[in-house]
């Protein structure tokens, strides 16, 4: 694997191998007082974030450090980007400084792909940590890892993705990955929060949350991304919550084995009630924990594995 830029077109066997590696790393570290492996000793991993992040950035940093890589964090506000330096020049600077892998989050869709092109001659691996409204592949991988852990597998499982699908790169990456791994995906949202061309995706579309929950093995609640909205997509936060919020009453509609996911950050009281977020059915904390192991696995396949090919 040369890069991880998207889940669209990602080989299911490679995705499964990454998930299996994450399981193995999790098992290896279980019970260790010092969580440190020598796997990436001598490698340099740089996180380049043009957007704010807590979970993704921290988990990549921990993943790299647990594998003994040297991890350097670069933020746009504290770098030459704030002086007007282009993304291309920043990328080439990082590669020249010795970066083996650059993990990028950027507000422009396609930024990670451009970075991979610019760094092709340098041999620097690129990981997409979220580009605009396009994709967020490691989030989808950690979601898949959590669902495999809770449900025992993904094939023929019905996963409901609820809320602001239109602006969600998490939803897009999950649609591609989960369907490739054999799951059935149903998108539940108001018509205004569904992307154009959704009918061409391998998904079922619904506008009725209550009707879909009894048949769902898992429900993934999405944050309403107000920062990406220009105009009215729904009447009010209260009306959105009434129609599409996951509250305690709706939680009871899920099967007994049903799992609740959320990529974070959560807007408690809007798309998800606090009692639901903290309920036994919730795997939200497990998502964060699995995110470290999944990102360790991604770094392993990029920088330490003999596997070849591009994702």
| SS summary, helix count | 11
**Total domain units:** 2
Low-confidence stretches: none
General form: globular
| Broad structural category | alpha/beta
Description:
The structure is a single chain. Helices cover 37% and strands 14% of the residues. With 311 residues, it is of the alpha/beta class. Strands 7-6-5-8-9 form a five-stranded parallel beta sheet, with helices on one face. The chain folds into two domains: 140 residues, Rossmann fold; 148 residues, 3-Layer(aba) Sandwich (Rossmann fold). The protein contains eleven helices and nine strands.
Question: Care to give the gist of this entry?
Answer:
The protein is an alpha/beta fold and 311 residues long. The chain has helices at residues 12-29, 55-66, 87-96, 111-118, 137-151, 169-180, 209-212, 237-244, 248-251, 274-277, 284-303; strands at 44-49, 70-75, 101-106, 125-131, 158-162, 184-188, 204-206, 218-221, 259-261.
Keywords:
311 residues; alpha/beta; Rossmann fold; 2 domains; five-stranded parallel sheet; four-stranded parallel sheet; 11 helices; globular; amino acid binding
